[in-house]
Design a protein that fits this description.
With 348 residues, the chain is mainly beta. The protein is built from 2 helices and 17 strands.
Length: 348
């Protein structure tokens, strides 16, 4: 399924590349300031032209498939021994389909609305029966309202504030049928899924940030500080831990239709406060609120195609993929294996 989706993304990028070559003639001069863009994996990345409307679609895929405690891999047999009669996580994969609409009503302000549709799949080992328990959820996540306010701009540098609010539209009560062989669970009964499988936070979240973009001739660079600050306790009795992140990138616009980029991203997230009383920490580490925190450093490489002809004229088709350099997880917890973001953006 993952391979099929990645092939479809690759086909979209290839079609954009061919359109950019076969369409109207490409400009020969170097891009002007403001014509290079941060990598597709950066959100709230730039303030737009006054009166401009931009529609974006991003597909973000993340795969996790190894158990870590701190920075060390934990042997599966050890986790099985610790959770006898329970479940041991083996693999987690998530797809986020993200639709974003941006509008700039004034020279200094850009407004965004972001709507995510999430698909999550989790495979766990039933320790006593040695069977694989696979469960999936899908649905809308938390809708985000975001404003970008430009505080400084000259020919080479731009700085803006990110002021976001996340609405509790995603479910926090996802369930599935319990497998046989788990102590304390009635086979076939509906049981609450662990924290990682829920679609939303269940509370309002404040999303502050600061973004810098620089551009000189064909080279661009930038950085972004951000956070997700949860406000209040949800109806299940817990508040997700806050998250903090930093991204830094550098890239080059090689031609009017092609640019590449390199980015590093650091994330840190904390354990929930409180707990969902329908989850049992003795069954699985995924149900233990004290084993959800961690931090991670990723390196990512991006490619962007700018279409200059055909029915996608003016569109940006992008892909960015990467791997974790280091992970420090409070576990045992599933560590990331690879990350991929692709997207299509069109402004008018």
């Amino acid at each position: 399924m993952v391979v099929a989706r990645i092939k479809r993304v690759g086909a979209l990028i290839a079609s954009g590349f061919l359109l950019s070559i076969s369409g109207s003639a490409l400009a020969s001069e170097a891009p002007e300031n403001g014509s290079a863009y941060p990598p597709i994996g950066v959100f709230g990345e730039s303030v737009h032209s006054s009166g401009e409307v931009k529609i974006s679609y991003r597909l973000h895929i993340e795969n996790r498939n190894k158990l870590l405690n701190g920075k060390s891999t934990v042997p599966l047999a050890q986790v099985e021994a610790d959770y006898s009669g329970g479940l041991v996580p083996l693999n987690f994969r998530s797809y986020a389909h993200i639709i974003e609409l941006a509008w700039k009503p004034t020279e200094a302000m850009t407004l965004f609305i972001t709507v995510p549709f999430l698909e999550k799949t989790l495979e766990q080992l039933v320790v006593d029966s040695d069977q694989i328990y696979r469960t999936s959820v899908r649905g809308f996540g938390d809708v985000i309202l975001n404003g970008l306010y430009q505080v400084f701009a000259d020919d080479k540098n731009r700085v803006h504030l990110n002021l976001g609010l996340s609405l509790p539209s995603g479910s926090t009560s996802e369930t599935d049928e319990a497998p046989s062989g788990v102590t304390g669970l009635l086979p076939g009964s509906l049981q609450r899924l662990p924290y990682i499988m829920q679609l939303g936070s269940g509370t309002l979240s404040i999303r502050p940030g600061l973004t810098y973009n620089g551009l000189y001739k064909k080279t661009f660079w930038g950085g972004q500080l951000g956070g997700v600050l949860e406000a209040g306790t949800n109806s299940e009795g817990y508040k997700l831990g806050n998250r903090y992140s930093f991204s830094g990138w550098v890239g080059r616009r090689w031609t009017p239709w092609l640019q590449t980029s390199f980015r590093v991203r650091w994330d840190q997230w904390f354990n929930p406060t409180g707990a969902d009383d329908q989850l049992d920490p003795s069954i699985s580490p995924l149900e233990d609120p004290s084993m959800q925190a961690g931090e991670r450093l990723d390196t990512l490489f991006g490619v962007d195609f700018f279409v200059s002809g055909g029915w996608l004229k003016g569109a940006r088709i992008s892909i960015e993929g990467g791997l974790p350099v280091t992970q420090d997880l409070q576990g045992p917890q599933l560590g990331a294996d690879w990350i991929l973001t692709s997207g299509l953006q069109y402004a008018f």
